[in-house]
Amino acid sequence: MKKNQLAVQARHLSVRFGTFTAVDDISFAVRPGEIFGFLGANGAGKTTTIRVLCGLLIPSAGQAWVAGLDCQTQAADVKTKVGYMSQRFTLYSDLTVAENLAFTAALRKLDTRTLQRRTRELFDFIHFDYPQNSMVSDLPGGIKQQLALAAALLHDPPIIFLDEPTAGVAPAVRARFWSLIRQLARAGKTIFVTTHYLDEAENCRRIALMRDGQIIALDSPRRLKASAFPEPVLEIEPQPGTSREWLRKLKLDPRVARIQPHGRRYHVLVLNGPAWQGIARRLPKTLSLRRIQPSLEDVFIRLVEAEVSA
Amino acid sequence: MNLTLRGFMKKEFLQTLRDPRMSFFVFGAPLLQLLVFGYAISTEVRNIRLAAQYAPGDQLARRIEARALSSGWFVPVTHQGEDPFALVQSGRADVALVAPAGGLSRAARRGDARLQVLVDATNVIQARAVERYLGAIVQGVIQETFPGQAPPSPLGLEIRTLYNPAQVTTFHMVPGVMLMLLSLLTILLPSMSLVREKETGTFETLVSAPVKNWEILLGKTLPFMILGLVLVHLIFLAAVLIFGLPMRGAYWKFLLAAVMFIISTISVGTMISTISRGQQQAMMGSFFFLFPAIMLSGMMFPLENMPQALVWAAYLNPLKYMLTLLRNILLKGGDDWVFWTNLGALAILALAAATFSFKRFRQTLN
Fold first, then answer.
1. Spatial separation of the C-alpha atoms in residues B345 and B315, rounded to whole Å
2. What pairs with residue A256 in β-bridges?
3. Phi, psi at B295, each rounded to 5°
């Protein structure tokens, strides 16, 4: 890949299945070495976009390039440059670990020596210490997921597409998986990752929020928060068992824009800084309150609400 | 060999044969079925239950009954002179012989003897056999009882049965059984194998790699071709060693026919795979093809007797050509014209099915 060349570029990309529009005229670019997050609910069009970029789906309109190659006309070349980890489990459960990797290597025409070297490197990377002749069906879920990542990385691709890599795995495994992703990025790989866990998206350099096939926002997490919430956001944590009278009063206060429950806590959005001072004085002392950075979830909710009302 | 194809070979063999039960279904079960079919299935009808009713003094009728029982085809039914219709109706007898009221011997001397035969024709094959056997038995008894009375026939047939002089049913059946077992393996397994990859999601592994369409299609079918060739030889050896099936033609003709047939059935299987949406559909599709293909192969029923539309349909049936080839090579020594025309027909069918699958196959996920 040439220097300064974009890793991924999409221009007015649309994908329709019959009358259903899965991806609706999206454009974006991903720089080399970036962790680029694709966020959105199920059915927002994330997987469809990834499949176009990996050369697995032909777009209805628009164009996409990966590593400078056209995803439609140079699909075979694109496939040599990308590693793709599907949201479905795509290893063979009735083959052993070694047999799966050998078959993946055969598909990509890697010779035995390359296969052995890469297997060693990748097992080291994911700390895989099960016997290589274990059947894949016998491995625990999180380990299978890391093995699928290893298989996607076998040919050492510069660009890696991960489609919901952490769906349905335990929190500890999710954290471990993200540390692998960050290591890959540090090693210079471009990572394109989709998720619907908004907390994970904080790991991304930039994120695109998708809704109904469209990108409704695209920026770094920090800038997204700043632009979505110019006003202060406060978190209020009531003591268990205290009266909810303050909440009723707060809801009636004209200086309060919105109250969003987050578990036991509440995120309160006020119109401006000075207004907050007035409100805080009237709240009971038993409430613990602090000014916070809005979470991406707040951002997402706000952006989607703005979309709906517009 | 291409690295990708070699990878496919290894993977498919591992997936198909690692489970000992599956290995048994691929190799053991067909041999077992060959034994069962080869020994048990025969168009000869035996153990026909015969009820004969005649007056105690009727010598001629007694002789006919005795001859029938000693022929080995019939077994006696004990009865107390009930209505012979009731005997057949209730299923106690397959056939009832009823002598005329005055006795068969006396009627025969008068020259107008009529022996009633009530045959249960709910099983047509058995009814025809009964008719044939009884005709021969009565003829024999008459000639013995009234020697010199029947005029010598001015014309006699001298029949020579060629290729299967003893009319051993097994020789007729074994090529058919070989054909059925081979078709089952080479249509059903390939039809399910590609759809299974789609169902389990591993199809994404295949298509996200830079592989060519022909590499996937050949990689998914070549292993079954080899399995099919191994199976055909296993069945062939068993048929020769156990049933004494003659091998009168050249081995290379047999091999070439087997290869061409397997290519055609695997192409049909792959075609079914490319139009099915799941393993269940693929399985239904395979049987939907297999049953009529077996019926229209000429293995059980002669094609010549079928309506013209079905005869045309049979031209699209690889099983029909292979059966002709097998019988021709194994029993008749492999006539060149028959060999090449049928082989050519198989090749055309194989090419058509393979082209269809290739055109229909997509590496995209929709």
1. 9
2. A270
3. -60, -40
Give the C-alpha separation, B72 to B162, whole Å. Answer: 26
How many angstroms separate the Cα of B3 from the Cα of each of A90, B6, B10? 21, 5, 11
Per-residue confidence at A74, pLDDT binned at 50, 70, 90?
A: very high
Across the interface, whether the CB atoms of A56 and B364 are under 8 A apart is answered yes
**What's the confidence (pLDDT) of residue A134?**
94
Question: Are the beta carbons of A267 and A294 closer than 8 angstroms?
Answer: yes
* Per-residue tokens: B160: 């020579």
Q: For chain B, how long is the longest CA-to-CA vector? A: 93
Contact B104, B115 (CB under 8 A): yes
Q: Looking at the predicted structure, is the pLDDT value of residue A180 above 80?
A: yes
Decide if pLDDT at A1 tops 50: no
Nearest CB to A76; choose among B15, B201, B210: B210
Judge contact between A82 and A157, C-beta under 8 A.
yes
What is the nearest CA distance from B334 to chain A, expressed in angstroms? 42
**Measured between alpha carbons, how far is A307 from A304 in angstroms, rounded to an integer?**
5
| CA distance to A299, B20, B188, per residue, from A266 (Å) | 15, 60, 61
Q: List chain B residues with CB under 8 Å of A107.
A: 4, 7, 205-206, 209, 211
Q: What pLDDT band is residue B149 in, cutting at 50, 70 and 90?
A: low
- Rounded Cα distance, A188 and A34, in Å: 8
Q: Position B31: which residue type?
A: L
